[in-house]
TrEMBL record:
Molecular function in Gene Ontology: allantoinase activity
A biological process from GO: purine nucleobase catabolic process
Segments passing through the bilayer: 21-41
GO CC terms: cytoplasm
Name of the featured protein: Carbohydrate esterase family 9 protein
Pfam families: Amidohydro_1
Keyword check for S-adenosyl-L-methionine: no
Keywords in alphabetical order: Membrane, Transmembrane, Transmembrane helix
Species of the source: Rickenella mellea
Organism lineage: Eukaryota, Fungi, Dikarya, Basidiomycota, Agaricomycotina
Length: 948
């Protein structure tokens, strides 16, 4: 009998000796004729005869195959060409590389060359000249001059192609809402090949991604591993890496082990929320689904036991069900189960489920509480799952509230495999390596941090036989970096996928020499221990210095504000580092020790803080997210909420109707965890406007992120700062852009009553800044015209600042000419939606970044954030902006982007002498290896000190 197609419905009929036809129904819809074979068994017993069905041979092969463990065929390592090789691809020799191979737990580093041919890594290290001679010169040579080379980045959790960018409703295929348990769905069926993010993510070194369905369902469906590069076929299927045999129907060789399949599960808030149910309902749905699969599996096993014993009589059809076959495969240990699961209660539910139904799971994703319960993970069936984490994205819902930046290192200490993942587009996977860099900064050993986005992620998706390492015979997915990969801002200078160079004319920045070494990281042992001790909620309130005199010693540099921005002063000489003497929160002396001796003498209790070559810098400012108005974004009861909008539903008359104007200061909440974490990272001020879903926001406020409550001295820097509005294309039925502009025109040109009228008048007179959140370059043009129109009519110059401003670079010249400033949010752009699709991506894809381009056109630029958890990362955002700018942005300017420029652009007037200062040990605020150890506040006459 010929080999069947996908053996789903192999028919079994008792064939009569008359030779009656039997039918074999194939999944692919073919129907074949065949004849049964009548065999006398046990002829010496005479009577009994057994009819062996036509498909016996196939059935036996199939039953034998069920015993095989998934993985590559035994001969896989002997391959000479990749199944993904594109004929015509020239071999490449990457010369003079510093190769992080992934071997020896990520500790192996080899100096030498890497030879790529036939879609494979053919050799690395010292490449034999004989091998090279065979190419007769037909090899592209890339001399990387000692640069770091790593395997391609492997993202274990992505929604590339199913949550595409720019986001359009027609391209949102991440979640089905048709049921809780749907193992039959396949992310591949929705994979959009026109997602702008494929090329962007490649430019960050990502070569492979596991595309998971979303988390709206308990079982959201099957996931698929893709390579990100373009293919000649241009089809979703041609992007697949080792798809399971079931995906394509035909030609299954049952003597081979199956390939790994992948499946998404989710527990906790998402699946429960979507179906208006509870955790109890979701877990019951899981158990019901798994029980269904168990029954099928058991009947298959019983069937196979008989078939393999040649007991065909009355055996009937192989029991199966297309809807449930994938879940049956889970029970057979043939599926890498990827479980979105955060909280201890949910982790415990799933661990019990694995033991009840006896299946292993590959990883818990998000997994914010895994670090609190490593022993629970070890109780999971067969092996502990890996934890796939974000580095610092946390607290956005209850499940994530106890998330810790120390989770990666704590889990690694407990022998749990750590993976850093993007959840793209939740985090832009172009910067997945940044997650590993941050994990390293907070204590994950370097070898494990790099492995967390290469070898470990490859292993957890069952692909480590071909990706995740630099190794002979592995896929030629290789990244050449412009610095050590764990240095902040590491950017590819070239990316190879299947041996094909992906960057056509890469723009390369020469990084400082020190960036070629592994960055040193501060000590966070105490903080990590506290994260455990306090179950994820360690106290974060700052501690005041004991006395009123603090002396910072071994200070290298001091950055101070002046009217121009931020200026750098070197305090050290060639032989000696400097000191900074602070009394009552004011710097009274800075320079070499001898020159400050007199300011210290006579004081009894002087607190000395050794900065070990560190610096004093201006406190940074956070803008863009509702910091101070939110505690847990996803929990309305912890947030200030939304303002009324006159264009949508109107403003209640008791509030004053159109005359009302809302002040953010009235809704401020202090001592939120994100505020304190930002404060501990050198961000001392928040500027926040009321939260609005439409056009009108209200009056922003500037406040201290270190204050415990609003009545504390210095808690408010400026109660009202600027008037904020936003003009965007609405996603659904919101007011049109033209309606929003018409409203603005009326506000600016017509005298109106009440409180709101007063503020709008001040804006038209140019005494209050109008801050407009806008992304589209078309809307920006309209706003520049409106500004002119208003100025022509009133004779006043408007103060206007654009925030968000993703497409602003297209009008850099005009924006500068109009004397309009820009707060660029987020500081590294992403084409989230249509109105911000025209990004200037920065190196390696474009020479300029949007920030450097705007600055070069003399636009005043600040940087901001979109979500409150990321306020703490402001200093790295500023440093990164400078790193991308070919030295055109100095350290002082980088600090100004996130401090003085923001204040200026957002209407906050801080007396220069009263601005907060930040003390960092081991380097300055922009250095990835430094640690914030103190905040100096002249306004409140105090110094807060943190652990060294
Ligand atoms: C590799 O590049 C470095 C930096 O350019 C250079 O100093 C070194 O001599 C090169 N080594 C070889 C073997 O070419
Ligand atoms: C699917 O099957 C066709 C026909 O046999 C084959 O040419 C193709 O390579 C297969 N595709 C995949 C992704 O396995
Ligand atoms: C920006 O300002 C500088 C200094 O005033 C000037 O030399 C330069 O030409 C300006 N650049 C642009 C693009 O206008
Ligand atoms: C404050 O001091 C206590 C006791 O010394 C210490 O445990 C805690 O970590 C300190 N808090 C901060 C924010 O440094």
């Amino acid at each position: 009998m010929e080999k069947e197609a996908l053996p789903m419905h192999g028919g079994q009929r008792r064939a009569r000796s008359s030779g009656r036809r039997s039918w074999t129904l194939l999944l692919v819809g073919l129907t074949l004729f065949a004849f049964g074979v009548h065999i006398q068994l046990n002829p010496w017993r005479g009577q009994r005869s057994v009819t062996i069905p036509l498909h016996a041979e196939h059935t036996i092969a199939r039953c034998e195959n069920l015993k095989l463990k998934p993985g590559p065929p035994p001969t896989f390592n002997e391959r000479k060409q990749s199944d993904r090789f594109v004929p015509g691809t020239r071999p490449t020799l990457i010369k003079n590389a510093t190769i992080w191979t992934g071997h020896v737990k990520g500790l192996d580093i080899v100096k030498g060359d890497v030879l790529l041919d036939q879609g494979l890594i053919k050799a690395y290290g010292k490449v034999d000249q004989n091998v090279l001679d065979k190419f007769e010169g037909k090899v592209d040579v890339l001399d990387v001059k000692g640069a770091w080379v790593s395997p391609g980045i492997v993202d274990l959790h992505s929604h590339l192609g199913v949550d595409s960018s720019p986001e359009l409703r027609g391209a949102s295929d991440g979640n089905s809402i048709k049921g809780t348990i749907q193992p039959w769905l396949r992310s591949l069926d929705g994979l959009n090949t026109h997602d702008d993010a494929y090329h962007l993510s490649i430019s960050g070194g990502v070569t492979t991604a596991l595309v998971l369905p979303g988390s709206a369902n308990g079982i959201g469906g099957q996931a698929f591993t893709i390579k990100l590069r373009d293919t000649a076929e241009r089809s979703p299927t041609s992007k697949l890496l080792e798809p399971p045999f079931t995906i394509n129907g035909t030609h299954i060789d049952l003597s081979l082990p199956p390939r790994w399949r992948q499946m998404k599960h989710a527990c906790g808030e998402n699946p429960s929320r979507v179906y208006g149910s509870t955790r109890m309902d979701t877990v019951w749905a899981f158990r019901q689904g798994y029980n269904k699969a168990r029954l099928i599996k058991e009947s298959q096993d019983a069937y196979c036991e008989k078939a393999l014993n040649n007991e065909w009589t009355g055996l009937g059809e192989f029991p199966e069900d297309l809807q449930w076959e994938a879940l049956v495969d889970v029970l057979r240990g043939r599926v890498k189960v990827q479980v979105h699961c955060y909280e201890t209660v949910d982790l415990d539910d799933i661990v019990r489920l694995t033991n009840e139904f006896q299946f292993p799971i590959a990883a818990f994703h998000h997994a914010h509480e895994t670090y609190l319960v490593p022993d629970l993970l070890k109780q999971a069936y067969e092996h502990p799952p890996a934890a796939a984490l974000f580095a610092t994205n946390a607290r956005y819902k209850r499940e994530a509230y106890r998330g810790s930046e120390f989770a990666p290192r704590i889990l690694a200490d407990n022998d749990i495999k750590v993976v850093m993942k993007s959840d793209h587009p939740v985090l832009n996977s172009r910067y997945l390596l940044y997650e590993a860099q941050q994990a390293h900064y907070y204590g994950l050993p370097a070898n494990l941090a790099l492995a967390a986005v290469t070898t470990t992620s490859a292993e957890v998706m069952g692909m480590d036989h071909r990706i995740g390492y630099i190794k002979e015979g592995y896929d030629a997915d290789v990244v050449v970096w412009d610095s050590h990969p764990l240095a902040l801002g590491a950017t590819p200078t070239q990316v190879f996928i299947d041996g094909i160079a992906q960057l056509k004319a890469p723009h390369t920045v020469t990084k400082p020499k020190s960036f070629q070494k592994l960055p040193e990281t501060p000590n966070f042992d105490k903080e990590a221990a506290d994260a455990l001790k306090y179950e994820g909620l360690p106290p974060l309130a700052p501690n005041k210095s004991k006395g009123n005199m603090v002396v910072f010693t071994n200070v290298k540099t001091m950055y101070r504000r002046d009217h121009e921005g931020v200026q750098e002063t070197l305090l050290s000489s060639s032989t000696e580092l400097g000191v900074v003497v602070v009394r009552d929160g004011n710097v009274i002396c800075s320079g070499l020790e001898a020159s400050c001796a007199s300011s210290v003498s006579g004081y009894e209790s002087v607190e000395y803080v050794d900065l070990q070559g560190g610096a004093i810098s201006p406190g940074l400012v956070s803008f863009g997210a509702p910091l101070g108005l939110e505690e847990i974004s996803g929990e309305a009861s912890t947030n200030d909420g939304y303002v009324f909008d006159p264009l949508v539903g109107g403003i209640p008359s008791i509030l004053g109707g159109e005359t009302a104007i809302i002040r953010a200061v009235d809704g401020l909440q202090y001592a939120t965890r994100d505020a304190y974490l930002a404060y501990r990272a050198g961000v001392t001020t928040g500027i926040t406007s009321p939260t609005s879903a439409y056009l009108l926001s209200g009056l922003s406020t500037a406040f201290s992120l270190g204050a415990a409550h609003k009545l504390e001295k210095g808690a408010i820097l400026q109660d009202t700062a600027a008037l904020h509005v936003s003009v965007h294309h609405s996603r659904s039925v919101g007011p049109s852009v033209s309606t929003q502009i018409a409203t603005l025109r009326r506000m600016l040109l017509e005298q109106r009553d009440g409180e709101a009228g007063k503020w709008w008048k001040a804006v038209s007179e140019g005494s209050v800044t109008l801050v407009i959140d806008v992304h589209s370059v078309d809307i920006i043009s309209t706003l520049l015209i409106l500004k002119k129109e208003v100025e022509a009519q009133t004779g006043n110059l408007l103060k206007m600042t654009l925030t968000g401003a993703t497409e602003a670079h297209i009008l850099a010249k005009e924006i500068a000419a109009a004397n309009v400033g820009v707060v660029y949010v987020p500081s590294r752009p992403f084409p989230t939606d249509w109105q911000r699709r025209r990004i200037l991506p920065g190196p390696p894809l474009s020479k300029d970044s949007a920030i450097s381009y705007l600055l070069a056109h003399n636009v005043t630029v600040g940087i901001g954030i979109e979500e409150i958890w990321s306020a703490r990362n402001t200093r790295f955002d500023a440093a990164w902006a400078a790193l991308e700018a070919y030295g055109e942005i100095s350290r002082s300017q980088a600090l100004a982007l996130a401090s003085s420029n923001l204040e200026k652009l957002l209407g906050v007037d801080v007396e220069i002498e009263k601005g907060d200062l930040v003390a960092t040990a081991y380097g300055d605020l922009l250095d990835f290896g430094s640690k914030v150890v103190g905040i100096i506040s002249p306004r409140t006459a105090r110094v807060d000190l943190f652990l060294m």
